[in-house]
Design goal:
Elements (H helix, E strand, L loop, with lengths): L2 H74 L4 H109 L1 H19 L3 H21 L15 E10 L2 E9 H10 L4 H17 L6 E6 L2 E6 L3 H7 L4 E3 L2 E10 L2 H8 L6
Parallel strand pairs: 1-6
Antiparallel strand pairs: 1-2, 2-4, 3-4, 5-6
Helix pairs in contact: 1-2, 2-3, 2-6, 2-8, 3-4, 5-6
């Protein structure tokens, strides 16, 4: 099983969804920026309209003063009445035009104010949608980190079971070998066992040359009776006559960097650490973990001054101050465990996305 394959397969859907949300979020940011620029232009137009209204107001005030002056002149200078009336009429028309322009400007200002309110409402709507997107993005990011952490946990469980299977198989082989030695001794010292063994050897020899079905069946039944009797006395001794196949395990352990600290993670959960602390021994799994940790420390040449075993990311780890050069030497080739020569350890840097997930406070172990 390859960790990267497991992680890639379990996170492909989340990474695709996250990518789509990132694109949509970028689109919303663009629309929000465009709307803010439009609001700035509207406020600029409003300021221009107000300045124009003030200018026309000043013109209107000046026209009123001039009309009043003309009226006085009409009263005083009747002889100039016709000329002044024409002037008065002209100024009145101009005033009417100014009033019309002022009314248009006020209507335009009202319309611009409505546009500003509409734009502000739309901007608030965009901000709400962006907040929802940020919430979805945060949830998916957390789910993605949890999935990466679960993928590493699945790999760790698989590796721990591989250790258990190998060590359990070696113990069974040793037990069968001890029984075989006892069986060989008994054949030479126990008359009954010796006679049964001799009969078994001859029956097996006869079976190799027998071609008559009835005779062969009789020989097989008798051989089965003898082997059953021998198996009762020496369980597993007959099975150990065939050579056990050689079993090896190449275990890839991953390390990460936590600030300047080197952290090597082992596939043993916190419950095993607690059992080892409380009893110093215990279940078969606890004893197996102690065997692996001791062998790894010896194989890697770890000393107490290099660091200590502790709990990190929900599992047993070795944390220390090894520099990059020392780590490169340890990771250069697989190392056999001195107490388990069939187990080879290799060190690899944790994939960055999984390392980030294991360091996250939102991840559950």
């Amino acid at each position: 099983m390859n960790l990267r394959d497991v992680a890639r397969e379990r996170t492909v859907s989340l990474r695709d969804t996250l990518g789509g949300l990132e694109k949509k979020r970028s689109d919303f940011d663009g629309r929000s920026q465009a709307e803010q620029e439009r609001i700035k232009r509207i406020f600029t137009d409003l300021a221009t309209c107000r300045r124009e209204e003030e200018r026309l107001g000043r013109q209107l005030s000046a026209a009123d003063l001039e009309i009043a002056d003309v009226r006085n002149q009409i009263d005083e200078l009747e002889k100039k009445r016709t000329e002044l009336i024409e002037k008065y009429t002209s100024l009145s028309d101009a005033r009417t035009q100014v009033e019309g322009g002022t009314k248009d400007l006020r209507n335009r200002e009202r319309k611009l104010n409505e546009d500003v309110r509409s734009a502000q409402d739309f901007l608030r709507s965009l901000e709400r949608e962006r907040g929802e997107l940020d919430g979805q993005r945060s949830s998916l990011s957390t789910a993605l980190q949890q999935t990466y952490a679960d993928a590493f946990n699945e790999y760790s469980v698989h590796l721990r079971k591989s250790f258990e299977g190998l060590i359990g198989g070696q113990a069974e082989k040793a037990k069968r070998a001890d029984m075989r030695r006892a069986f060989v001794v008994a054949r030479g010292t126990n008359a009954e066992m010796g006679m049964l063994c001799d009969q078994r050897d001859e029956l097996r020899s006869f079976l190799e040359s027998s071609r008559v079905p009835g005779v062969r069946e009789h020989l097989e039944n008798r051989l089965r009776e003898i082997e059953t009797r021998l198996e009762q006395e020496f369980p597993g001794a007959l099975l150990s006559e065939a050579a056990d196949p050689a079993e090896t395990l190449s275990a890839e352990l991953f390390y990460l960097r936590d600030d300047d600290e080197f952290v090597l993670l082992f596939p043993f959960e916190e419950r095993i650490w607690n059992e080892m602390e409380s009893t110093g021994a215990g279940s078969q799994t606890c004893n197996m973990a102690a065997t692996i940790l001791y062998g790894a420390a010896k194989a890697l040449g770890l000393k107490p001054s290099d660091g200590e075993f502790c709990l990190r990311a929900g599992r047993i780890a070795f944390a220390g101050r090894l520099d990059d050069t020392e780590i490169a030497v340890l990771a250069s080739s697989p190392l056999p465990l001195p107490n388990l020569p069939d187990v080879y350890l290799s060190l690899s840097r944790m994939p960055s996305e999984i390392e980030e997930a294991l360091k996250s406070d939102a991840v559950r172990y």
